[in-house]
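Schema walkthrough. Field components (list of strings):
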Amino acid sequence: AVQLVESGGGLVQPKESLKISCAASGFTFSNAAMYWVRQAPGKGLEWVARIRTKPNNYATYYADSVKGRFTISRDDSKSMVYLQMDNLKTEDTAMYYCTARSYFDYWGQGVMVTVSS
Amino acid sequence: EIVLTQSPTTMAASPGEKVTLNCLASSSVSYMNWYQQKSGASPKLWIYGTSNLASGVPNRFSGSGSGTSYSLTISSMEAEDVATYYCLQLSSYPLTFGSGTKLEIK
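Field assembly_structure (string):
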């Protein structure tokens, strides 16, 4: 069965950094585009970042709201995708979901990131 | 940026009633995806490529549309369909979701 398991969330102060991870299994990870999507408490879904596959040079794309602060990466040998979040702001507080494949076919259970002083 | 406007924001339907949810794009997109999110749960892919049902989705659901106007239809509302439904465009960056339609049962 397909599984995406996020980890690494928590409470951080503004301007601090945090790295969240997503462990994938049950599908051919190296062939799959990977994404991060977030959802602020009580709000809708917001796409955050995308990383393509090795044949596509691991190209990355970001929402304007996180560009220059967040970095998505992947380790195909471990079937892992990461989101390095720097200079965090209070408005980055959200549940962060890892999703996989072109149509956002698979979703993890999410990891909560809270940015507050 | 392509803005997706979903309507209605909230609606309630009776069991057996036909339901139509709308998603209007500010510019033309190639296709639309839809996601179902139940309270406290992760979203699930529901409809992809405008009209293709994801695995396990009941055939009372259907999707249609083109250009800037897309819709998700439930032919006969059931209690298990209570959820928030989001549309998503993958045609251009930044990828954007609609704000969602919350569907309740009467």
